[in-house]
Amino acid sequence: QMWNDEQTHSLPGDAVQQAALARSMGFADWEAFLPVLDQKRQAVNAVFRRVFVVEGGEEPAKTPERQLWEQLLDEPQSLALLAQSGFTPPEDSLSVLSDLRTGRLYQSLTELARERLNRLMPRLIRACARQENPGLALARSLPVLQSIARRSGYIAMLADHEAALLQFVKLVHASTWITVQLTQYPILLDSLLDTRHLYHPLNRQELDSALKQEMVNIDPLDTGQVMERLRQFKLTQVLRVAAADITGMLPLMVVSDQLTWIAETILEQAVAHAWSLLTAKHGQPRYEKDGQHHVAGLTVIGYGKLGGIELGYSSDLDIVFLHDSEGTRQVTDGPRVLENPVFFARLAQKIIHILTTFTHDGRLYETDTRLRPSGSSGLMVSSLSAFTHYQHENAWVWEHQALLRARAITGNPVLKQRFEAIRHDILCQPRSLADLGTEVSNMRKKMWESLGSKEDDIFIIKKDPGGITDIEFMVQYLILAHAHDHPDLVCWSDNIRQLESLKQNGILPADKAGHLADIYRLMRNQVHALALQEQKSAVESEELGTERAFVRSCWEAIFPDQ
C-alpha cells in the first residue's frame, strides 16, 4: 500500500519492492524476512480460528443431509430421513426444501452463491434437527436465507462457522420477531459470530460508551450518517436483549430495563445531534433574568412505557418537550437569530425526524407527543412555567394519571430536578376523593368500551376488565388520593414500585399489594412472550381467569359505587 500510494495489500512480486519491504521491517533481505512473516501469519490465523471457530471444508459427499438437499434420494427415502431427524410432518419440510432447490431464486444465483448455499444447507438441516421442533426451525430459517442468498458472504459465514449457524437456528426457532429482524436487517447476522457478547446486553453506562464510540469516525453534523449509526446500534443492542431474553438469561423486569436504557441512550444522542445542528446555525438560546444571562436548555420527558421503564420490543415513545427559557431577551446568540420558542420548536421537530424517519435500516421509534399541554392542538414545546400553569389550572385527571408515569429522560441535572419538583408539587395537591373516583372509573369505562375485546371468548390482556390497565388505574387512583398526606408515593414512575409504596404506607394491605404485583408481572410476561412471536396481546378468555377475578374484586372494593 505504501509503494506509490497504491491501494493494495498484496505482498510485492518485484525483487526491488521485496528488498525495500524487507529492509523497512528491519531485515537484511527478502529471504530473511519471509520465514518470519509466514510464522506471524500462521499465528494470527490460529487466533482467528480459535475466536471464530472456522469450520471450513467441503461437506462430505455421502452425508444423508447432502443427498437430501441435492435430491439424490427418492421421496420415501427423503421423508424417512426427515422423520427420523424429528421433522414433523416430514412432508412440509421436504416441500420447503424442494421449493428452494428448484425455485427461481436458486436458479438465478451465481455459481459461487449456489456453491455456498449447497455447502450450507446440509449443515442447516442438521442444526435444525437439534431443536425441539426441527420443522419449525427450518420453516423460519429459510425466509432469512432467501433474503440473503444473493449476498452470499452471509451464506458463507453461516456455512463456515458452526457456532454462528447454531445460534442462528436457535434464535429463529425461538422467536418469530427475531426471524423478522434477521430477514429485514441481515447486518444483524454479524452479531452471531461472537457468542461471548450476544447473550450479554450492555448496562446503561456501557451503552452510552458504546454509542459514543460508534459516532467517533463520522461527521457529527451529517444527519444521514448519524441516523444510520443510531439505527444499526439499536438493531444490534435490541437483538442482544432478545437473545438473552428467549434463552431465559434475563427476567422480564430486566428486559424492560435494558430496552428502556437503549431508548434513553439513543434519545440523548438524537437530542445532542439536533442541538449541534441548530446551534451551528443560530447559536445558543439565551435569556436574561434578574440581571443574569443564562443558556436555556431542553428536557425530554418520557411518559407511558418509557417513563414507567416498561418498554417492549416494538414500543412507541411517549415524549413531551419542555424548555426553561424565561425572562427577557429570549433569543439565540448566533448570526441567524431566532426567538427561543422558535428555536426549541425546530429542535423538537429535528429530534422527531431523527427518531421516526424510515431508512433502509428501518426507523428508530414511533413517537407520540399528544400528552403535551393541550394535546395535539398545543405547542410542540412548552416552557416549564407554561407546563406548570397548565397542569395546575387546566389538566384533566387522566393527565395527572399520565404524569405519575412521567420522568425526565434528557437534559442537564438542574433542569431535570426542576421538572421533578414540578411533578411532585402537582401530584401531591389535595383532591376530592369522590370526584377523583368518579373521573378515574368513568375514564376506565370509556376505555373498556372503545378498546376492549368485542368477543366473549377473547381476553385482551392489557385493555379488558381484570387486565393490566385495571391494575394501573387502581394504583394511580390510590396515589393521587393519598399523595397529599404521603408525598413519597410519587417518587417512582413504574407500577411495581408504586405498588410497593402503597403497601409501605399502609394504603394497600401487604398481601393484596403483593398479589397485584405478581399478577401485573405475569400479565406483562405474557404480553411480552406474545410480542416475541409477533402475536397480539390477547388470549382465550379461560386463561388467567383466577387472576382476572382477583383484579376485578380489588377494583370493586376500591370503586364500590362506580
Description:
With 562 residues, the chain is of the alpha+beta class. It has four domains: 16-52; 64-192, Up-down Bundle (Four Helix Bundle (Hemerythrin (Met), subunit A)); 204-400, Beta Polymerase, domain 2; 433-558, Four Helix Bundle (Hemerythrin (Met), subunit A) (Up-down Bundle). The protein is 60% helix and 7% strand. The protein has 25 helices and ten strands. It has helices at residues 15-24, 30-52, 64-69, 75-84, 90-102, 104-108, 111-129, 134-148, 152-160, 162-174, 176-184, 195-198, 204-214, 223-246, 252-282, 304-307, 340-356, 384-393, 397-403, 413-427, 433-451, 468-482, 495-504, 510-532, 545-558; strands at 285-289, 292-295, 298-303, 317-323, 328-332, 367-368, 381-383, 407-408, 458-460, 538-540. Strands 3, 4, 6, 7 and 8 form a five-stranded mixed sheet that branches. Helix 18 runs parallel beside helix 20 (413-427) and helix 21 runs antiparallel to helix 22 (468-482). The chain starts with 14 loop residues before the first helix and ends with a helix. The model is unreliable at 49-56 (pLDDT under 50).
